[in-house]
Amino acid sequence: MRSADPPKARAVAEVGLGLRDRKKLEAAATLAQVAKRLFAARGFAEVTVDEIAAAANVSRRTFFRYFPQKEDVFFGRRAAQLAELEALLDAPDREEAPFATVRRALLSLADLHVESRGEILTEHRVLAGSPELLARDLEWDRRVLDILAVVLGRGGGDPRRARLAAAAIVGVLRVVIERWVDSGGRTDLRAEGDEALMLLAPMAPPRGRRGRRSFDVGHSGLKPGAARPT
Amino acid sequence: MRSADPPKARAVAEVGLGLRDRKKLEAAATLAQVAKRLFAARGFAEVTVDEIAAAANVSRRTFFRYFPQKEDVFFGRRAAQLAELEALLDAPDREEAPFATVRRALLSLADLHVESRGEILTEHRVLAGSPELLARDLEWDRRVLDILAVVLGRGGGDPRRARLAAAAIVGVLRVVIERWVDSGGRTDLRAEGDEALMLLAPMAPPRGRRGRRSFDVGHSGLKPGAARPT
DNA sequence: TAACATTTGACACCGAGTGTCATCATGCTA
DNA sequence: TAGCATGATGACACTCGGTGTCAAATGTTA
């Protein structure tokens, strides 16, 4: 969505796929792209699915085949972001303290945010203008929370405490991002994020002498050994 | 909402009101009551507004006059809860440290939760079964965050730090409540809440030597002097 | 009781979301 | 290369949430 390709807006790797699948990717990409442009211009609620579909030259029904809900066309990035996070957290260095792993991963994520500043800022502008999107957006934080809780629990400390720390981290980072967005991306996201994180460092479960328990990670839906980039 | 009256489910003070307004209160109460019963039985999404309206002997259109959105009939409590919180935070003792005020208020709120255990547990069960409600529910946390941020900022410390602390508190408490709900209300909500809070005590802004600044409270929508029970 | 104000219900309409089915393009195979 | 199986598409119809409009019913006040 940054580089302008000669023919069309090309998605990711369209190679090694049949024409059928390439078309599918392109259709989805076009829909998302068109939709975001419309949302940015007039707000999420003011844009109808019919319009998006028409602008992308597909039928309304087809739109819903690609995006089960209108909101999904907006939150396309999220799934990828989660995957990125999990990849970053898949600590190569198993000796590293869990909190350090989390810190490193989140700061990298901050860098990625800054890299796509433009996109993310407009995204948040749309978000801010739409309560329903805002609400859905908060749900992603829960997903992040689950992931972080698992990682923080790796140390073997009290998993409940790990989850508390994860919750605090997620909450605090949202505020930092919020501030970054409000400043138009001018504040130093990485620095402020790190500052906030270090405030929470003492919350991480102290080196665990409860190593035996690997159960009760709470609401997690993540397998302890999962998370490889693919 | 606590005492059971002989004739109907009576709302609050129905005295000193004309017949018109009494009917209005009763209609709203009936709708909410009927709706909650249906939601609890079959889930939020499976119950249609028509059903609720029919069960309450009003037209569909009338339902929407009382509750602009279907979701609103579910979140009736929330507004009251926020008011309670603000009342609790309206510290009588201005010498008390902001964090202590927050702690006191939140623990009182925990007690209230425990008092209405039954209601709240079923409420959360419905919530858990409905992504849209869950999403909306998270928005209330933001409101709480705003309120707490203001109070924590009273001490005169860095208001940004106050907001960070508020975010951490809200995030952490949601986890505690989540655990309480999952346990069927058997864990000690107050104790676990306090434990979690004390973990965050060091986050509260250190005694402020920046007393001059009263601006930049961030996303708050709360007037510093507001919050009296009414 | 008469005049006024407000609430209600009926109707019509829009947009999101879903099931169904005929049609058409793709990809594989003879 | 012809043909067939598979799967994507578009058209249609329908449900449900949500809203505007207006006439009828109900409450309030003089």
Binned, the helix content of chain A reads: 55-70%
The CATH topology of the largest domain in chain A turns out to be Tetracycline Repressor, domain 2
User: Which stretches of chain A are poorly predicted, pLDDT < 50 over at least 5 residues?
Assistant: 1-14, 209-230
Number-wise, the strands of chain A total: 0
Which architecture of the largest domain in chain A does the CATH hierarchy give at level 2? Orthogonal Bundle
| Radius of gyration of chain A from CA coordinates | 20 Å
- Structural class of chain A, by secondary structure, is mainly alpha
Largest sheet of chain A: none
Question: Mean pLDDT of chain A, as a whole number?
Answer: 84
Structural notes for this entry:
With 230 residues, chain A is mainly α. Chain A folds into two domains: 8-73, Arc Repressor Mutant, subunit A (Orthogonal Bundle), CATH 1.10.10.60; 75-203, Orthogonal Bundle (Tetracycline Repressor, domain 2). The first copy, chain A, contains nine helices and no strands. In chain A, helix 4 runs parallel beside helix 7. The longest helix of chain A has 24 residues, at 19-42. The radius of gyration of chain A is 20 Å and the shape is elongated. The interface between A and B is medium-sized, with 33 and 33 residues. Chain A binds a DNA duplex (30 and 30 nucleotides) through residues 18-20, 23-24, 27, 48-50, 58-62, 64-65, 68-70.
